[in-house]
């Protein structure tokens, strides 16, 4: 009579190849968010509707804060799949425009829900009654070199609230021969010429648009 073939279970638990392995009878526990974390995330869910991709960005920012990590734009986009990078950047821009996220010195934060604007648009923060312009001197934002160059054209200009989606649309529709775009990433840094729409992305403190025959416009993130 032939020898009885050992069972697969016995081979895996007692065989030479498995002798030094620890067999897990109970799976490791799943680490769930704390009660405080759960309550805080739920408080970030007002009635105003956000898309699923926008919610993914908001929740990811909140979780990074809980982990005591600063959610910069580069860090945030690196946590999503590479083919989702453009979608994440678009969501970040839209959320900043609607005051869902704030960007200070390169770090993203989830704003208080009382500041969130409806998805169909609304007034930007810091606007005045004069056509949405704000009484701030652009000369206080620019560095010394750009200040002396642009002073004749900007001295009498009041900044407009910076809405990236609107500036991008204006860039796409502008005549590149007659209109020039410049971006200011941080206060008193150099103005950088914009040659493609992908450059219009956070972090941005201000945008300068100069059109031949029409003068200059200055957009500021308040």
From TrEMBL:
Specify the protein name.
Answer: Uncharacterized protein
Q: What is the lineage of its organism?
A: Bacteria, Thermotogati, Synergistota, Synergistia, Synergistales
């Amino acid at each position: 009579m032939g020898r009885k073939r050992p069972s697969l279970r016995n081979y895996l638990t007692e065989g030479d190849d498995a002798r030094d392995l620890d067999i897990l009878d109970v799976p490791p526990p799943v680490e769930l968010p704390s009660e405080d974390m759960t309550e805080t995330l739920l408080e970030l869910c007002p009635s105003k509707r956000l898309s699923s991709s926008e919610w993914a960005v908001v929740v990811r920012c909140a979780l990074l804060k809980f982990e005591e990590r600063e959610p910069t734009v580069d860090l945030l986009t690196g946590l999503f799949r590479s083919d989702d990078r453009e979608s994440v950047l678009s969501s970040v821009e839209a959320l900043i425009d609607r005051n869902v996220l704030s960007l200070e010195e390169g770090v993203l934060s989830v704003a208080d829900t009382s500041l969130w604007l409806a998805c169909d648009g609304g007034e930007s923060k810091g606007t005045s009654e004069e056509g949405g312009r704000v009484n701030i001197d652009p000369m206080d934002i620019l560095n010394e070199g750009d200040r002396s160059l642009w002073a004749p054209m900007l001295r009498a200009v009041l900044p407009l609230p910076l809405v990236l989606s609107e500036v991008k649309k204006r860039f796409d529709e502008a005549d590149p021969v007659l209109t020039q775009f410049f971006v200011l990433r941080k206060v008193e840094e150099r103005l950088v010429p914009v040659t493609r729409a992908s450059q219009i992305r956070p972090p941005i403190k201000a945008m300068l648009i100069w059109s031949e025959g029409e003068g200059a416009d200055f957009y500021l993130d308040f």
